[in-house]
Amino acid sequence: MISALVLGSVAMLGPVSAPYPPLAAPVAPPQLRPADPALFELGQTGELELLVRASATQLQAVNPTPHPIYLRFADEERGVHAGLLLPPGTQLEARFPAGTLEGLWLEAVSFDAQGRHGTGALPLDELLVEGVRALWIDRTASELADLSTWIVDGAGRTLLPPEKSMLKPPGLSSAPHVPGVTPHDNQRRMEAPKLSPKPLPPL
Question: Are the C-beta atoms of residues 17 and 10 closer than 8 Å to each other?
């Protein structure tokens, strides 16, 4: 599946957790850059934990916080995983052919003095829906995961329920969980916290 190109891109930046067949090179090598200053400010005040944006040919993940965030990518068809540690105050940028994000899942885990905080498995296909601008991840109280994920669109923000974590506890020998697709019902499940009306920087 073409989404394996993203896994290949991630492998260039960090260790891969499971072997997979040789992959074609992405359109351009992935880059780690300093986080956008406007987003960095939100991360320092605790309003934003991680921002993920994408187009048909580009993925951007921004860590504006003062602590590292581990990103885990999984291809549900091939059953392969790759991961990297996104340093504090940085953003990952990757370019690839159209169709690459289809069937790809992401899980983020942040590490700070209070311990680990995870999102659960999130379908990156959500970013390809018309009108969707980003996945906004913060520490809003939620029964679904330690970190809450919001779909940002022109109407505001809607909570995205995650699937079960893809990160298997050490010592378990069972097969890794492959998340299924959660159908949309276009219903708001929880109101997003009110933030200052600052537009997101362009992708």
Answer: no
pLDDT digits 0-9 by tens, 79-130: 678 889 999 999 999 998 888 888 899 999 999 888 888 999 999 989 999 9
Q: Looking at residue 203, what is its pLDDT?
A: 59
Domain ranges of the chain: 4-159
The residue to which tokens 């003095």 are assigned: 113
The pLDDT assigned to 17 comes to 36
Give dist(CA 114, CA 78) in Å, integer: 35
Whether residue 58 contacts residue 114, with contact meaning beta carbons closer than 8 Å, is answered with no
Cα-to-chain-centroid distance, residue 85: 12
* pLDDT (mean) for 44-71: 94
Beta strand spans in the chain (E): 28-34, 50-54, 58-63, 69-75, 80-86, 90-95, 104-112, 115-118, 122-123, 132-138, 148-153, 156-159
